[in-house]
DNA sequence: AATATATGAATGAACG
DNA sequence: CGTTCATTCATATATT
């Protein structure tokens, strides 16, 4: 279920020299490792149970066994219900691209088009798109203001940049539950 | 790395009473799990290292690409850098005081002043201050709601203005997570 | 080490 | 549109 893919995508093919990965590739790698890490934590537990004695399957109230099965399904996906829309990776990329090119474009009827396109990659409503652009613009501007305000702060201040420096979010790659 | 196969194997449908796997199969399974467990421990560590990726020393926002080598290097070491701001005792006191006196005053341009003042006691950015107040307000409110919601016994009058019809109107895209 | 809690940060949605 | 709210995520810290 979530196990394939480590190598299926741009095999980074690193030579031992000075190979460089793009942020995207790195991000993908992170996500995948994260998935494996999750699976692995479970496996470690399971292993412990197994080693600790009995048949993992028959002995206990099949709790462990079941865990393994459902494990695969939830590997990279938080099973927590999502109550608010969250753009998928693909959707986000598209949105960012549009935002960049049409910079100050307060979308209007294009919202429909964009929505239409994005809905091929997960459910989404026009309101979502609208809000997204609103927020994007507002936050970009606010960040700018802050940046321009600080003058000589040579204190090697920590970066408050947060534009796209997303941390690896261990989920958001797999199936988007639609209902 | 051949992780596949672990899950591809249809989980033996076990019943409560009889064991459907032979001892051999079980043994094989154990061995496999054991191996995976080992691999996974490594992966977990690696993942942790990668996720913590940041650069406390040069502060440079690592551009579009990052060398794989450095990635590998990080996997081995514990990047113990703190990647999120933490207010010092002094800063916290000041923040609390300001929060108390200007209670409902959602700071706006005062952020700058506050930041300026606090930066005399350690690293801090306007964003930090902004976030701090946001969180402070939100969490204070939530705590109160919890208190008022269940203590309704004889104190029926101390509810704050509940006139805020702030209700999530998630009527269209609520995703019902079943499981 | 496993779990619980506190909290800085990110972000979708709503308000004026 | 600029601000603010509400919820969620991820990490830091504390506890057993």
Automatic annotation (TrEMBL), chains A, B:
Subcellular location, principal: nucleus
Subcellular location: Nucleus
Organism of derivation: Pinus pinaster (Maritime pine)
GO cellular component, one term: nucleus
DNA-binding interval(s): 80-144
Full protein: residues contained: 17 to 195 of 294
GO molecular function: DNA binding; DNA-binding transcription factor activity
Domain (Homeobox): residue spans on this chain: 78-143
Keywords assigned: DNA-binding, Homeobox, Nucleus
Record region (Disordered): 141-169
Protein origin, superkingdom: Eukaryota
Membrane-crossing residue ranges in chain numbering: none
Biased composition (Polar residues): 145-162
Name of the molecule in the record: WOXG protein
